[in-house]
Design brief:
Blueprint lengths: L1 H6 L2 H9 L2 H14 L4 H25 L3 H8 L1 H34 L5 H49 L14 H12 L7 H15 L6 H29 L11 H16 L4 H34 L7 H20 L3 H27 L12 H23 L2
Helix pairs in contact: 2-7, 2-9, 2-10, 2-12, 3-8, 3-10, 4-9, 4-10, 4-14, 4-15, 5-6, 5-14, 6-7, 6-11, 6-12, 6-13, 6-14, 7-10, 7-11, 7-12, 7-13, 8-14, 9-12, 11-12, 12-13, 14-15
């Protein structure tokens, strides 16, 4: 078990980044509002996004360079598009995950109910972890967080299933009306994660190669990814189950303020599962969001630093530090102005992520199946078919959403 855990790394970082708002907020809300009716959406989007996420570690380990390097090979215009999309979305994404984490921290630890104060504390803690320990500490810490998250979530789900005496309805639903369709697109946007995490994953895979004395080859990188990806799908189903079993039909709605949302979330669980489970719920929720906040604070600056170097053909000193300071400051500024409306912030971030997903899907597919990747690591015919279907799925749902605005 120790050897297996040591060999894992980027896949669990992917899971840590993915299992956050998409699971705790969106999957729980999907279960609360639709029961198991959106299970089809969770399974389909995970299936159709799979190839494009997998191409990140596949390309990095097969070529020794990140997807961002590959985007430049596809043309400087592609790299500029990546750079601008990332810059336009990274502050909203970081603010969305940080505010949810802050609300949960206020509920779990007390001290102060002020979500901005907690956001600053959490951002500083994450910043120090990344500056002092760099990738190695992040790699070790995320394993502890993911194990804690999985165990506490399993306890909560087991109690919910045991206590439930109502019949489970698996009738699937296609939302109608602009509000429900907007929620579906937001749900799909970050389930299991925004597609730009594929580029982050390729950077983490390269860092893993540097940090380990063992050969972290393409086969190991794909195994590592599949472990992390399977975990995100399983936990997504767990959170839909929790939302469905303990919230569906209660008639309650979530508050848009972070601290009130966190309190409502934990109260709704403990009312149905028993007060003795509150610690498991609180730990599961907080570790879910803290892992996302930590990994996204590392990944966006790492990606922007790499993109900047490639665009200007120059390695800038302290580039990563500059970007992480900029992201931290930007996040706090955004939260200071929009602190009262967490749900809207999450909705904007998730919808933007879904609408930009076709760009990443097409770019990743062109890169992995073209001349820049060794032929032995090109996708199999089945994976190519799944990629084509995935692109059709992402483009089709984006058009459907825009037509229903």
């Amino acid at each position: 078990m120790k050897k297996i855990l040591q060999s894992l790394g980027p896949g669990l970082l992917f899971a840590g980044a993915a299992i956050g708002v998409s699971h705790l907020v969106q999957s729980t809300r999907a279960g609360a509002d639709f029961g198991f009716g959106l299970l089809w959406a969770l399974l389909l989007v995970n299936l159709f996004k799979y190839p494009f996420f997998q191409f990140g570690p596949r390309y990095a380990s097969a070529t020794g360079e990140s997807l961002i390097d590959g985007y430049k090979k596809l043309g400087k215009g592609v790299l500029w598009a990546y750079y601008l999309i990332t810059f336009a979305t990274m502050f909203t994404i970081q603010a969305a995950v940080t505010i949810v984490t802050a609300g949960l921290a206020a509920n779990l630890f007390g001290l102060t109910a002020n979500a901005v104060t907690w956001s600053i504390i959490i951002t500083i803690i994450c910043f120090l972890i990344l500056m002092i320990g760099k990738y190695k500490l992040l790699d070790h810490l995320i394993k502890i967080i993911i194990i804690t998250l999985t165990l506490s979530t399993l306890v909560a789900v087991s109690v919910a299933v045991f206590n439930s005496d109502s019949a489970i309805d698996f009738t699937q639903i296609l939302p109608e009306g602009s509000v429900e369709i907007a929620f579906l697109i937001a749900f799909l946007g970050w389930m299991p994660a925004p597609l730009d995490i594929s580029a982050w994953h390729s950077l983490w895979a390269l860092e893993k190669q540097k940090a380990t004395t063992e050969d972290f080859n393409t086969k190991k990188a794909l195994f590592d990814f599949n472990i992390g990806y399977t975990g995100t799908v399983f936990l997504g189903i767990c959170f839909i189950t929790l939302g469905s079993l303990v919230m569906f039909g209660t008639g309650k709605t979530f508050d848009s303020a972070a601290e009130k949302f966190a309190q409502q979330l934990i109260e709704l669980y403990t009312e149905n599962l028993g007060q003795e489970t509150s610690i498991f719920i609180a730990i599961a929720a907080f570790t879910t969001m803290f892992s996302t906040t930590l990994t996204t604070l590392d990944a966006s600056p790492r990606a922007m630093a790499k993109s900047t170097d490639l665009l200007f053909n120059k390695t800038l000193k302290n580039n990563y530090l500059i970007w992480i300071l900029l992201l931290s400051a930007g996040t706090i500024i955004i939260l200071s102005f929009f602190i009262s409306n967490m749900i809207t912030m999450v909705k904007i971030a998730t919808i933007l992520s879904f609408l930009t997903a076709p760009f990443y899907a097409i770019a990743n597919f062109l890169l992995i199946s073209g001349k820049h990747t060794p032929k032995e690591w090109h996708p199999s015919p089945m994976l190519k078919i799944l990629s084509y279907l995935g692109i059709i799925f992402l483009v089709g749902f984006s058009i459907w959403y825009l037509m229903n605005l």
